[in-house]
Request: fold
Amino acid sequence: MQPTIPMTPSGHARLKEELQTLKSVERPKVIQAIATAREHGDLRENAEYHAARERQSFIEGRIQHLDSVLAVAEVIDPSLLSGPKVAFGCTVRISNVDTGEEVTYRLVGPEEADIEAGSISISSPLARQLIGRETGDEVQVRTPGGQRNYEVLEVSWR
Reply:
């Protein structure tokens, strides 16, 4: 049995929307592009045809991936959760003990992680160390740049 993938309601909706767009918009568009490129003759030297086939391969692979992820997704609504400990769906503010630099992250499922948007995967090394910790706790995280120490400043469920 395949393990479930935790996901927030908004992340689940985003993936379903992407899947729908790929199936109803992108797939027909690339099929038409392939048909148009075929009309241009010799397929061996037809760059448009090869680009369209490559795009089709990407789209089909992404559709397959999203179908499999959504099939095992476990939607967890963080707004129904609370508590002092770091867990899936919470927002945690941490401070680098050595530099004093503060960052805030929301812990989400691996399919939703977006460091630019302040979301990290619960399976990331940092999140794994933070899970179960409370305000005031310190954690050590091994990163490519070396060992880092962080202090949990705040855990919220917004």
